[in-house]
From TrEMBL:
The lineage of its organism: Eukaryota, Fungi, Dikarya, Ascomycota, Pezizomycotina. It comes from the Eukaryota. This is Uncharacterized protein.
Length: 343
């Protein structure tokens, strides 16, 4: 895309130049020739490109070469001061005014971009600045809630509008020169005035207040398994202090009977109470049922003969684990042969 070149007179707050910058191509369009012949009171020769350029430059550089870009209907006072009437025609007459937005041409380019650039006149700029300060800023301030920096934001918004309206340059196609009239004045055709109106009204920005603060709700921290507050929920039940740790029978009683082991085991199991014993769980599948009557073991109820009897060492280890609290092991070991014959 070719660069957008503008003269120094198009900058913000720059005064109007004494001469308009006009650049024509090597071939002049027929419509431009007809337009220049129509507006010139004195017949001037237009047979070459330099003649067209000189005629157009002199015409647009005249102090009377003021174009009317658009007309905007604006209120005369803030909303709170407007007159209220049942007749809408009376309200329009007393409450609104028509401001004509005027501009002059600062640049004509028929080589790179085929455009013409307009800059607003100082009178139009001053009218728009007064409306923005006295009416627009008052309305937007009244329609928003108050906060600490509200007046500062309104002032800043007005300063930004002053800069924007002074920088405003309207660019359009060079065919807009067909609306050229005598003495260099003119008017935009083909609905271009509505485009200018939309661009200018877009510079009247609303006042945006800061969003309301969101109050953070303080919530208690979640109870996790590792937190002290939830320790009672997850702690497992512990054994009472008076219950000793379980003791494996094979670590206390040897697998084979002997005189020393029988005596020691007899005194050991007699000194322990019933509530201090920890039975193995689950019970081995080959344990024999017992009966509490008479402290004697009953024979197992089977429907088929037992193929083989357990060894004495195995029987002794099993009975030591289940007969605690019901008598010494030595008293029952002497009657082992009697038990074996009844089985």
């Amino acid at each position: 895309m070719p660069p957008q070149l503008l003269p120094a007179s198009a900058a913000a707050f720059a005064p109007r130049a004494t001469s308009v910058n006009v650049v024509l191509s090597s071939k002049v369009e027929p419509w431009l020739t007809q337009t220049l012949k129509r507006i010139n009171r004195i017949k001037r020769p237009l047979n070459s490109v330099p003649q067209h350029q000189r005629c157009l430059t002199e015409t647009l550089s005249s102090s009377t070469a003021i174009w009317t870009l658009t007309s905007i209907m604006l209120p005369k006072a803030p909303d709170a001061e407007l007159r209220k009437d049942s007749n809408p025609l009376i309200e329009a007459l007393f409450n609104y005014q028509l401001i004509h937005i005027e501009a002059y041409i600062v640049h004509v380019d028929m080589v790179l971009r085929n455009e013409v650039a307009f800059k607003l006149t100082p009178d139009s700029i001053e009218s728009l600045i007064e409306y923005h300060k006295d009416i627009h800023c008052v309305d937007i301030s009244a329609n928003t809630y108050a906060w600490s920096e509200k007046e500062l934001q309104v002032k800043k918004l007005h300063e930004e509008f002053i800069q924007a309206i002074n920088k405003f340059v309207y660019r359009t196609h060079v065919s807009a020169l067909e609306g050229l009239e005598e003495d260099g004045a003119g008017e935009l055709l083909c609905g271009k005035s509505e485009e200018v109106k939309a661009n200018i009204m877009g510079l009247f920005l609303p006042l945006l207040p800061p969003p309301p603060r969101i109050v953070d709700v303080v919530r208690p921290p979640p109870l996790l398994p590792s937190s002290p507050a939830g320790a009672n929920w997850w702690s497992q039940s512990t054994l009472p202090s008076n219950v000793p740790a379980p003791v494996d029978s094979w670590r206390v009683i040897p697998s084979s009977p002997s005189t020393t082991s029988s005596a020691d085991s007899n005194s050991l199991w007699a000194s322990m109470g019933l509530n201090e014993i920890q039975l193995p769980s689950p019970t081995p599948s080959y344990s024999q049922p017992y009966s509490t009557s008479g402290l004697f073991y009953s024979s197992p109820q089977v429907s088929a003969p037992i193929p083989s009897l357990p060894l004495p060492s195995m029987l002794a280890a099993q009975q030591c684990g289940v007969s605690v609290g019901y008598g010494g092991f030595g008293q029952n070991w002497d009657r082992y042969q009697e038990y074996a014959t009844t089985m």
